[in-house]
Structures are given as structure tokens and as C-alpha cells.
Automatic annotation (TrEMBL):
InterPro entries: Cro/C1-type_HTH, Lambda_DNA-bd_dom_sf
SUPFAM superfamilies: lambda repressor-like DNA-binding domains
GO MF entries: DNA binding
Domain HTH cro/C1-type as annotated: residue spans: 17-51
Organism whose genome encodes this protein: Propionibacterium freudenreichii subsp. shermanii (strain ATCC 9614 / DSM 4902 / CIP 103027 / NCIMB 8099 / CIRM-BIA1)
Name of this chain's protein: HTH cro/C1-type domain-containing protein
Length: 164
């Protein structure tokens, strides 16, 4: 969307912002307030969180330590993760349990046979991807809590495990 079209759309939505004002936003010469962010996200058919989340190739945000993974930053920007040791532990515990469940599902499906070769090959690829994810979770888990609480996930299971 060009600057004039965006300016006209903002005006129609009740938020006046000149083309030069929009240009200043794009160049980082003007800060975006919450009202601007909300209406711009609406006009671009996306969410404010999507506009706040860094692009895939960018791994850091100004003011946020570089110690966080892009996945953590994305979840944080979407309100799905709190960047504290407790929040990170809970997130990675959940990811560990879900990943183990998925691995077990695909290993079981492969043991019992797939309906056709294409499914079998797809399941093997998914299983390989899940095992790579398991490796990433293991590395991050050790960084977050060297005692291994991420991997026994007792805290997670106490909070979210099946009710007996």
C-alpha cells in the first residue's frame, strides 16, 4: 500500500496521519503509539502482535537481550510467553511434553505400518523434524535450567497433567 492510500485509509478510519508522518514511522523517525499500531494493523489485515514481531531474518529487538531465541521473542510479542526464568521454564516444559507425545505417535504409526509409501515417507520426515526439535529443546532446556527440570517436566505435569 502506498503512503497516500494508507493516509486516506487512516483518515477514513478516524486516525489522521499524513503521508510524511507514515514515512517517518517506516523510517523509525517517529514512534508508533498504540492507536496508530491498532488501526494500521487493521488496515493491513494483520494483528498488532504481527507488526511487533521481528521478521524471520531478524533475531533481536532493540532493548531485548540477545540471549532469547527468535521463537521466544515471537511468543513473547504474541503474549504467549513471559520472558522470565519461570515463564521460559514453563514454555519449554510444555514444548518438551508435546514434542515427546508427537514423537511417540509417529514412531508408533511407523511401527504399525502406514497405509501407503507416501504416508510412510511423510511420517519419517516428520519424525526426523521432531527429533531435531527435541535436540533444540534439550539445548535450550539446559541453558534455562541445568538441573534438567525441563526434561522431567514435573512442574508442567503438576499444573497441566491429566486429572486422576
Amino acid at each position: 500500500m502506498d503512503l497516500r492510500t494508507m493516509s486516506d485509509a487512516l483518515d477514513a478510519a478516524g486516525r489522521k496521519l499524513s503521508p510524511s508522518g507514515i514515512s517517518k514511522l517506516e523510517n523509525g523517525d517517529r514512534r508508533v503509539d498504540v492507536d496508530d499500531l491498532t488501526v494500521i494493523a487493521y488496515l493491513l489485515r494483520t494483528s498488532p502482535a504481527a507488526l511487533l514481531t521481528p521478521p524471520d531474518e531478524q533475531t533481536t529487538l532493540t532493548g531485548v537481550p540477545e540471549t532469547y531465541l527468535p521463537e521466544e521473542i515471537e511468543k513473547w510479542a504474541r503474549g504467549e510467553l513471559v520472558l522470565t526464568s519461570h515463564g521460559l521454564l514453563a514454555y519449554w516444559q510444555q514444548e518438551w511434553v508435546q514434542n515427546l507425545n508427537r514423537i511417540q505417535y509417529f514412531e508408533s504409526a511407523l511401527r504399525h505400518g502406514s497405509p501407503n509409501q507416501a504416508s510412510h515417507d511423510d511420517y519419517k520426515k516428520r519424525l526426523a523434524d521432531l527429533k531435531e526439535r527435541q535436540r533444540l529443546i534439550r539445548e535450550r532446556g539446559v541453558q534455562i535450567d541445568p538441573t534438567g527440570r525441563v526434561f522431567d517436566a514435573a512442574d508442567y505435569l503438576d499444573r497441566f497433567g491429566p486429572a486422576e
